[in-house]
Amino acid sequence: MFESLSDRLGGVFDRLRGRGALSEADVRGAMREVRIALLEADVALPVARDFVEGITEKAIGQQVLRSVTPGQQVVKIVNDALVEMLGPDTAGLNIDVSPPAVIMMVGLQGSGKTTTTAKLAKMLAGKERKKVLMASLDVNRPNAQEQLAVLGTQAEVSTLPIVVGQQPVEIARRALQAAKLQGFDVVMLDTAGRLHVDQALMDEMKAVADIARPNEILLVVDSLTGQDAVNVAQNFSNQVPLTGVVLTRMDGDARGGAALSMRAVTGKPIKFAGTGEKLDAIEAFHPKRVAGRILGMGDVVSLVERAAEAIQVDDAEKMAQRLAKGQFDMNDLRAQLGQMRRMGGLGALAGMIPGMKKAQAAMANGAVDERLLLRMDAMIGSMTVKERAKPELLNAKRKIRVAKGSGMTVQDVNKLLKMHQEMAGAMKRIKKMGGIKGMAALLG
Ligand code: GDP
């Protein structure tokens, strides 16, 4: 999901990043590319247009933060706009009411409505320890009620006994009564789907909603259907008071635009994402995480978020001067590691230094954690002042001493030295390229 969009946007930002200054034309050019990328990902045209207009204005008007490059700032602006488009926060279910809470599931046939009903029921019964009753109101599709009963058995959730010949409104009424009498916390009503949106379906849903007074009306849409999903959502939201959307088949390789347009079109939050056929393949929808996945630049975003507060400007300036001379000893490396720790994995040199870039990618993946940084710090701590200033002094004997002193192995010491060497080499190259200006901009 989102892979091609992510790739496209990545390309746009790669061209922006690492540049000292951006002209208005640079920003406008990049934003045109963002717009094309969104449209290709199936984002609805008006949604893409509004999105790009908003970010262009911000990106051009924005004061560039100290410590980050303008390109990184633009990534952050796009990220924030994506989060806003997807919804500011994870939206939970409004079921903390006097029981029974009623959740009504609506959507087209084949959207995954029945499966999602069972998934949510299982989640509520399990994690939240709710007593849940499911009822199928689908009297059109043969076996729809039986299907829910089977899923109920799998999910270990009760289903309302089937009474042949009963109509949806009556079934809903019976479900509510049963829930009250038997002390259920939550009633889930799985309504009938249709192949297309039609008036009979809408009327039926309205009638059910009138008597069931649901706390939640969740629209289930298949994210693989792209623009159709958006149209379906618009139709439903015009006729029934939806409280949220569930996107199914997010495990598929759709272009993702449906997800991006959904909130803008319905004004309702995406609450859950279905990610497979199994009953536990459902996740709360986290706009921030999804935006991060799309941009694949969580590192840059948090860098910008934290830059202002976390970078100690004095240190950064001092380091910039040293780096400008092509100097980079163990003390500099240590300062960088400290900064990475303070910033949750991001030094001010983010992305510019080969060895560091890898370490950061690993940190972003959770493969390198704070402990590793602390261990590296401990190794540098075990070096003498002279060794720190001149790491080439570290011969085999000295390495053993450093390893012992820090509780690490000689191999670890070697790895640290190699990383330092790579970084020092990069510094020299930056100096050669006359990159003082770029470094200064990067470091504040
Ligand atoms: P309904 O007609 O809307 O009730 O749709 P169903 O719940 O019967 O689902 C139709 C098909 O989609 C079933 O085979 C489900 O297993 C499958 N399905 C539902 N949700 C997901 C999902 O999130 N991912 C995948 N891969 N399949 C899903």
TrEMBL record:
According to Swiss-Prot or TrEMBL, what is its membrane topology? Peripheral membrane protein
CDD domains on file: SRP_G
Q: Which reaction does it catalyse?
A: GTP + H2O = GDP + phosphate + H(+)
Main localisation, per the record? Answer: membrane
Q: Where does GTP bind?
A: 107-114, 190-194, 248-251
Instruction: Write out the entry's keywords from A to Z.
Output: Cytoplasm, GTP-binding, Hydrolase, Nucleotide-binding, Ribonucleoprotein, RNA-binding, Signal recognition particle
Q: What is its EC number?
A: 3.6.5.4
Q: Which family does it belong to?
A: Belongs to the GTP-binding SRP family. SRP54 subfamily.
- HAMAP family listed in its UniProt record: SRP54
Tell me what this protein is called. Signal recognition particle protein
The species this protein belongs to is Sphingomonas qomolangmaensis
State the gene name recorded for this protein: ffh
